[in-house]
Amino acid sequence: MGKFGVRITGARMRDCKAIAEIYEDAGFESIWVPDHLALPVEMPTDYPYRSDGTLPFGTDVALYDPWLWLSYLAAATERVKLATGVFILPLRHPLPTARSLVTLDRLSGGRAVLGIGVGWLDAEFDWVGQAFKDRGRRTDATIRALRALWTEDVTEVHDEFFDFGPTRFRPKPVHRSIPIEIGGKSAAALRRTAELGDGWIEVGSRTVDVFGERVRDLHGRRAELGRTGPFEVTVSDRSLLKAATGFKELFDAGATRIVVDPPRSPAGAIEVDQLAEWAKAFARDNILPLADA
């Protein structure tokens, strides 16, 4: 059965609790927050996930720590999943990342979802002393380290990037591990998703046909690897949402979750007094019909 997530980007901090409650009451399955450490004053003009290279946000956008943000939302909700879309994984060491995630997961009763990407903005890597060219391999190593920390009694990691342990990492996640859903469109990203991911966050497909081909390819690769566990396919790319004739076409092509944007004011803010009516109408037209199907 398909489900819907929703972004909270653009919310005023004082309104986040009310917005999260509105989303949960409407029946959204998940709430998604973005991640960047910092943005340069002058941004590059070759953003890789839009055909024209333009950014979907300005350099003056407000940036918040995703784990503090989601932990606050956890206290305001009971059922909705709490996800990053996407967390730039190779910018961070796996130990603090694992600790932040398991804290959120425990606070929320097992509702954390780690949506990740390798990053595209080389300045962020330069500023924290990471090699931009190594980000793919570092991402693979970080995923393996996170899984080990969350599932093994005693963990040791000694590889190209990390050297720590033995350690007993406690507590463990509520449901043994935390889902890791991987965003990307490159051959390396799709390989990583098939081998290591619990889901794919679509980006850059442009058309529903290309999206469907990629979904089928991922399922085929997972079958070859003997990976039979749950696997989410999330569509949140605005370009693909515009290209589709409707949500049903995307679900039929293999999406299991679609993440949408709420209406915003001309200044880009989410207005709480308008949000409840929008959420109610969206649930009536889209969420409830899926539940009844």
From TrEMBL:
Highest taxon listed in the record's lineage: Bacteria
Q: Which UniProt keywords apply?
A: Flavoprotein, FMN, Monooxygenase, Oxidoreductase
User: Looking at the keywords, is Transmembrane helix present?
Assistant: no
Question: What single Pfam family name could you report for this chain, choosing any that match?
Answer: Bac_luciferase
Q: Biological process GO terms, please? A: alkanesulfonate catabolic process
Residue ranges of the TM segments? none
Q: Which GO terms describe its molecular function?
A: alkanesulfonate monooxygenase activity
Q: What is this protein called?
A: Putative F420-dependent oxidoreductase
> NCBIfam families in the record, alphabetically?
F420_Rv2161c
**Oxidoreductase listed as a keyword:** yes
Q: Where is the Luciferase-like domain?
A: 10-235
- Write down the InterPro entries for this protein, in alphabetical order: Lucif-like_OxRdtase_Rv2161c, Luciferase-like_dom, Luciferase-like_sf, SsuD_RutA_monooxygenase
Q: Which organism is it from?
A: Pseudofrankia inefficax (strain DSM 45817 / CECT 9037 / DDB 130130 / EuI1c) (Frankia inefficax)
